[in-house]
Amino acid sequence: MKKQFLEIGKIVGTHGLKGEVRIDPWCDSAAFLCRLKRLYEADGMERAIVSAKVHKNVAIILFKDVHTVEEADRLRGRIVYLNRDDVKLPKGTHFIQDLLGLTVEDADNGHVYGTITDVLKTGANDVYQVSKDGRDYLIPVIPEVVLEKDIDGGVVKIRPMKGLFDDED
């Protein structure tokens, strides 16, 4: 089952004197985080965003209900969440948290290779870390290998390249 609220970053400090916070993004980029209109805390508290900008590799956010540096400093260390309903992802794009735990199986014969335990960002393409029986395998997320992602069905179908798994010919 998909989580409604997804971790998107952590408040790591303040910025300026008017109550802005610095958020370390746990998403694709600080720019993605800055496009949101609201964030949430673990207890479900909604925080409306008044302004947002990218500064180096962090997002500088001013919340509607935070007006001083002291109020902003009290938020330091908190994890912030997005509501998946607030985001429209491009077709074929998924939240990493939705991919974790999916079963990876062979598209041709149904052999189960393991489950996705991490998604690595390499620059050229993502790489799925697939784990089974204490072993980890790295699967490049390219059209020749990853043929189908069925998030609701809990499965990713692949056609592995030669050498990805030990037991291949």
Give the N-terminus to C-terminus distance in angstroms.
37 Å
Structural class: mainly beta
| Major beta-sheet overview | 6 strands, antiparallel
Count, helices: 3
Strand order of the largest sheet: 3-4-5-2-1-6
Computed Rg: 19 Å
Residue share in helices?
under 10%
What's the SSE pattern?
A: EEHEEEHEHEEEEEE
Q: What is the tally of beta strands?
A: 12
Report the principal-axis shape. elongated
Mean pLDDT: 91
Strand content: over 45%
Name some characteristics of this structure.
6-stranded antiparallel beta sheet; 6-stranded mixed beta sheet; single chain; 169 residues; mainly beta
In short:
This protein is mostly beta strands. It contains three helices and twelve strands; from the N terminus they run ββαβββαβαββββββ.
Give a description of the structure.
With 169 residues, the chain is mainly beta. Helix content is 8%, strand content 46%. It has helices spanning 30-34, 69-73, 96-99; strands at 5-15, 20-25, 38-40, 46-55, 58-63, 79-83, 103-106, 112-121, 126-132, 135-140, 146-150, 155-158. The chain has a 6-stranded antiparallel sheet. Strand 1 (5-15) and strand 2 (20-25) form a beta hairpin. The longest helix is centred in the first third of the chain and has 5 residues, at 30-34. The protein is elongated and about 60 Å long. The mean pLDDT is 91.
